[in-house]
User: Fold these one by one.
Assistant:
Number 1:
Amino acid sequence: MEEVTRLSMSLPRSLATRFQHYAKERGYANRSEALRDLIRHALVQEEWKDPNAAVAATLTLVYDHHTRTLKDKITAIQHDAGPLVVSTLHVHLDHHNCLEVVVLRGKAKEVQHVADRIAALRGIKHAQLSATTEGKQLV
Ligand code: NI
C-alpha cells in the first residue's frame, strides 16, 4: 500500500460546515474519504483534457426502437468504432423504449466522438456519457 501523507488546509468556516454535511449525507466515514473522492473526480476530469489519454466510459442511451432506421444507425456507428466498443447491454424498457449501455475504451477524443455521433442521431431520447478512467493513475 502506498505511503500516506497528511495535508492540512484552511477554509472558511461556512464552507467547512457545508462540506461536513456533504460528507455525512453521503455516508462517508470521515471527511478525508470524501475529499479523496473529490480529488479523484477532479483528476479524472483532468485526464479527459488530454485528447490522447487512454480512458474508459459508459454511454447510456434511451430511445424508441420504432424510430425508423435508428437501431441500424446505432449499430453501424458501433461497428465503425471497432475496438472502442467493448460491450453493450440492451434492456427493453417497455413496448417502445430501449435502454442501452455502451462500454467504451480508447483515446479520449475517439471515445467522445463515438458518443457524440450516437447522441446526435434523431430518435435518441437521452444520451449520457459517463467519463471515467482506466484507474491506473488513481489509488
Ligand atoms: Ni429494446
Note: Strands lie at 54-64, 85-92, 97-107, 124-133.
Number 2:
Amino acid sequence: MIVILKPNLPQEEVEKVIAEVAKLGYEPRPIHGKVQTVIAAIGDENTRQSLETLDAWPQVEHVHRVQKRYKLVSREVKKGQDTIVKVHGQEIGSGKKFVFMAGPCSVESEEQLMSTAKAVKAQGATFLRGGAFKPRTSPYEFQGLAEPGLKLLAQAGKEYGLGIVTEVLSERDVELVAGYADILQIGARNAQNFSLIVEAARSGKTILLKRGLSMKIEEWLLAGEYVLANGNPNLLFCERGIRTFETYTRNTLDLGAVAIVKKETHLPVIIDPSQGCGRADMVLEMCKAAAALNADGLLIEVHPNPAEAWSDGQQQVDFSLYEKLVKELQPFIQAVGRPL
Ligand code: PEP
Ligand code: MN
C-alpha cells in the first residue's frame, strides 16, 4: 500500500505513522519529498490487516491499495490458463463449445416445461433454465412453483438429457435446490448476499453468479471470490444488464464488463440477453454480440407462448424465434474459433 502524508508534517508526526505501518505488519519505506512524505508499505495486502484505517489519521492525506482485492478469481493465480468448468458432461470455458442454456423464466406447468425442453434441445441447448423460486418485485406476483417446479425441471432434464440451471433464493433452500439442479443460479438481487453465496458454494454445485443491478465489476468479482474462497472452483459469471438512466430497455446489457471480466479472471462468462435488455425483439442482436465477444455461452428465456407467460413475457422468445436465433448465431460462433 502507499500512504501519502499531509504536506509539511513535523518529523515526529511522520515517525508516528511509520511506526503504525510497521505495527500492522508491513515494512515501511518512507520517501521524503520537499513538501510531503510518501510511505511505501511492503507486504501482502490480502493476508494482512488493511492500512486503509490510516485514512482516518490526521497526518494522512490518502492511502492507496496497490494489489487487487480479489485473488482466487484473478488471472494471476492461474498463470494465464483459463478454467474450464465441467458440469453435466459439458465443458464450459475458453475454446470450448459455446453453451446454450435456455428455457422459461418461470416453470409454470408440465406441458409448458416439457415442450420448451424439447424445442431447445432440438436446437442444441445443453442446459434447461427455469425458475422454481422467483425473486419478484411485488409480493402479489407469481413466486414460482417451489419444489413441484424443481421436480418438473428434473423430469424434463432427464427426459431430454439436459442439465438444469435454476435459481436458489434463500440459504434455507440450498440443499433442496441442489438436490435437483446441476447449476445453482444466484440472482441479481442476491448477488451480494454473501451468506447465501457461501452456502450455495459449499453445496459443491456449479454456481452461476449474476451481476447485481447496480454492482460494480470489482464488487461482482469479489462476490465470485466468495465461491472460490469457500472451496468451490466451479463458478460462472453471468452478465445480465445493470440499471441505468435508459428506459428503452429494461436494463443496459454491459458488454464492456464482459470484456473486462474475461481479461481479469480465468473463469467462464455467460451472457443473459433476456434480463439484459428486457425485450424479445432485441435478444437476437444481443446474442450475436455475446458470441462475437467470445463469451462462453448464453442464458436465454424461451417460452411456448410469451404473451401468456406468468413472468417476464415481454422478453421471452418463442420457439420459432429461438430456432432462427440459434441458426443466425452460428457464423458468429465460428468466427471466434469455437467448435460448433
Ligand atoms: C431470471 O433469470 O429469471 C432472473 C430473475 O434473473 P436476474 O436475477 O438476473 O433478474
Ligand atoms: Mn426472468
Note: The chain has two domains: 2-64, 85-335.
